[in-house]
Amino acid sequence: MSDRPVHEHIRELSEALVQLSDKVLQNFYDALHAVKHQDEERARAIRLMDDEIDLTEVRLEERCLAFLALQQPVARDLRTIVTIMKINDDLERIGDLAVHIIERMPEVSPDILEKFDFEIMGHHAGEMTAKSIEAFVNKDRILADRVEAMDEEIDAMHSAVFKKVARQMKDSDADIDQLIAALSISRYIERMADHATRIAGEVIYLVTGEITRHSDSGYEKLIQSLKD
């Protein structure tokens, strides 16, 4: 690693993280399109892109570890590298969710998918992810807080899907396997929003040094909503 100023190394690592987020978001949107239109060719491209995302995530982590070993940053610089590594991991997991979505494609028909607002739900989760990365770039605590607040809407959407699936499963002619596949897609989108919220939490840590934790898991929130 060169003798350039520390801030230049951090800027390059941050830029690499943003580039990774762009790939992850595009692959996720492509997955939503592929499953909606039963696009096998795009599904294959999504799997190939996921391999590239995995490789990029590993390389970025290696660069961060090398930076920590050679530069031995302290204070704010150390927090920045730790934050980049954690966000890097969350982005890779979002990338996996795109693959999980297209894996459900053979199990669910467009007719079933039309009964649910997955496109709206998916773009809302994507917007959360994009805003969380924007909050990181700008070190914007207010935007990070806004992302965390947006998670409530995704939880409500997922809860609505759960209830709708449960009702339809009671029909004598219901296709249980397809409904379960649809519920899984909803869960993957909800998980994406959870990762976006985690990224927002890491931004808050970066800006303030405060470690945020959420007491209720998505599953617990869902169970509670069913009791209401």
Helix content: over 70%
Structural class: mainly alpha
* The named CATH superfamily: Phosphate transport system protein phou homolog 2, domain 2
Query: Quick check: average pLDDT?
Result: 90
Biggest beta sheet attributes: none
Strand residues, percent: under 5%
Global shape: elongated
Any low-confidence stretches, pLDDT <50, length ≥5? 215-220, 222-228
Series of secondary-structure elements, N-terminal to C-terminal: HHHHHHHH
Number of helices: 8
Structural features, described:
- The longest helix has 33 residues, at 176-208.
- The chain has a single domain, classed as Phosphate transport system protein phou homolog 2, domain 2 (Methane Monooxygenase Hydroxylase, Chain G, domain 1).
- It has 228 residues and is mainly alpha-helical.
- Helices cover 83% and strands 0% of the residues.
- It is built from eight helices and no strands.
- The chain starts with 5 loop residues before the first helix and ends with a helix.
What's the arrangement of secondary structure elements?
Elements: H1 6-37, H2 40-71, H3 75-103, H4 110-113, H5 118-138, H6 141-169, H7 176-208, H8 218-227
